[in-house]
Design goal:
single chain, two-stranded parallel sheet
């Protein structure tokens, strides 16, 4: 919101609660109270605000609620797109994920398929991303931002967050973050760079775009650096690799003018509290 307001946009933020709406107002934007699962309520809000564009960043990840996040990707996106189209909105930007590609040995590019045949929980997560992106593609201009793992203030990876608790041995926190110092490759993106991409995407062509930093890395490499920055023990190194853990390429985003200010997690982990 601060970036949009700085560029001169009129911004209306949506929250389910009065407290959330008040947080939006404190940042200088207008606010409305609505629920992404309330189709008719969303239609009324969209008609009343008459936006030129919608930016969809809804998840339930702050509560580590994967089930609701998947429902938001499926039902919430459907409701938002339908409400936007009914109000004549043509431009739509949505948050997707960069770790849903088919397995491979190199960082994934957007032309590669999603891992739709994956078993178990991964299969459900990937299919949720597929539904979100296919729904967004119904818009005249629809961009799906395939974010890497978000770190920085307010995320699981920030000091005092769920990952720090998990690495410190909190048994409850281990339910929030699956951390293995193995050969699984991860791509990260700082939340500030993710926000900048969302604003830039208002002017991008339709389709998916990976939003990740310049250095995909194995867990054996980045987890000790993160643990040191958080002041907690690093997990023991392992040799396995999780399905589809290959990282992603940011070549398309860079070609469109976006460059991460936090080019690598190496420096970003140490400064993510600012």
């Amino acid at each position: 919101m601060p970036l949009l307001l700085k560029e001169g946009h009129q911004v209306t933020g949506v929250s389910r609660t009065p407290e959330g709406a008040e947080r939006v107002r404190r940042q200088g934007a207008s606010a409305v109270q609505a629920d992404a699962f309330d189709r008719e309520g969303l239609r009324r809000v969209m008609a009343a605000t008459a936006p030129d564009a919608v930016i969809h960043q809804l998840t339930a990840l702050s509560d580590a609620d994967g089930e609701t996040t998947d429902r938001l990707r499926r039902e919430g996106t459907r409701n938002l797109v339908d409400a936007a189209r009914s109000a004549g909105v043509e431009r739509f930007v949505a948050q997707s994920i960069a770790w849903a590609y088919v397995p491979g040995e190199t960082p994934a590019e957007e032309s590669e398929p999603l891992d739709l045949g994956a078993p178990g929980p991964r299969g459900g997560m990937v299919d949720g991303a597929r539904v979100l992106e296919e729904t967004v593609a119904e818009m005249k201009s629809g961009v799906s931002l395939r974010y890497g793992i978000l770190y920085g203030p307010g995320t699981w990876y920030a000091p005092g967050g769920a990952v720090a608790a998990a690495l410190a041995g909190d048994p409850d926190a281990r339910l929030l973050a699956h951390l293995e110092a193995d050969r699984s490759v991860t791509s990260f993106v700082h939340v500030a760079d993710a926000a900048r991409a969302a604003v830039a995407a208002l002017g991008w062509p339709s389709g998916p775009v990976n939003i990740v930093d310049d250095e995909p890395a194995e867990g054996r490499e980045w987890l000790p650096v993160l643990a040191d920055a958080l002041g907690v023990p690093a997990p023991e190194a392992r040799t396995g690799r999780q399905r589809g853990a290959r990282g992603a390429s940011n070549g398309r985003a860079r070609a469109r003018g976006w460059e991460p200010e936090h080019t690598t997690w190496r420096q970003g982990f140490a400064t993510q509290d600012v």
